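Researcher: I'd like a candidate sequence for this fold, 235 residues long. If you have to choose between options at a position, lean toward the conservative one.
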């Protein structure tokens, strides 16, 4: 059976996951992570995309990308992936693939679900118990949004910008939203399932709208936003 076409809609963010083949590491040092970010910056510029959030883990990467063209998402991932593989193979004297098949992606609506998806991405190091305090993790967009530590390639999405009139107010409200509405349980499952299956993260009305535009039935999982029981800002 032929695989379904990936859902890509210009003007909306897409949650992208790149995984190492067979769950293998894709980063072995901070130098590797720095080079990956340089590749990401170049790919963003070439495709004129926007990047709202990211997180680099040991064997996978999360990105929240808004493409400027129908093929922009694929071109960004292709440019990023190829250049980084060449670097890794050359540096570590290896050959062959680095990535696990096709990248995973989901379309995300521009409302509270966009904030929830950003949180889901940025909570990864806390869930994996790499840090007790998210501001201690260097390789995500979290510190850019909450601590004012600039990542020059990160764009501020319209929902985040709506959290306040000043940078300080937006940082405070984003952190507060994180603590009171953190992406967990049912909502995490919704985001995870949609991305694994190439679906849509959003309200029923939004999913129905996209279903009609792509002429495809899209399953909506129950929505829920229970509070996180642990505090990702522990000192």
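Model: Candidate sequence:
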């Amino acid at each position: 059976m032929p695989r379904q076409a990936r859902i890509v809609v210009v003007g909306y963010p897409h949650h992208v996951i790149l995984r190492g083949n067979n769950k293998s590491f894709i980063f072995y040092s901070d130098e590797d992570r720095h080079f990956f970010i340089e590749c990401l910056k170049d790919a963003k510029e070439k495709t004129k995309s926007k990047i709202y959030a990211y997180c680099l883990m040991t064997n996978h990467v999360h990105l929240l990308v808004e493409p400027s063209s129908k093929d922009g998402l694929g071109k960004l991932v292709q440019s990023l992936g190829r250049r980084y593989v060449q670097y890794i193979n050359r540096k570590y004297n290896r050959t062959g693939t680095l990535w696990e098949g096709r990248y995973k992606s989901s379309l995300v609506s521009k409302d509270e679900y966009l904030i929830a998806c950003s949180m889901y991405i940025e909570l990864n190091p806390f869930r994996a118990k790499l840090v007790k305090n998210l501001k201690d993790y260097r390789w995500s967009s979290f510190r850019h949004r909450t601590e004012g530590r600039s990542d020059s390639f990160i764009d501020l999405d319209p929902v985040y910008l709506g959290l306040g009139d000043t940078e300080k107010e937006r940082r405070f409200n984003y952190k507060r939203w994180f603590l009171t509405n953190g992406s967990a349980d049912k909502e995490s499952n919704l985001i995870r399932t949609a991305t694994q299956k190439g679906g849509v993260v959003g309200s029923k009305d939004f999913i129905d709208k996209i279903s009609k535009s792509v002429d495809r039935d899209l399953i909506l999982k129950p929505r829920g936003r229970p509070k996180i029981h642990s505090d990702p800002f522990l000192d």
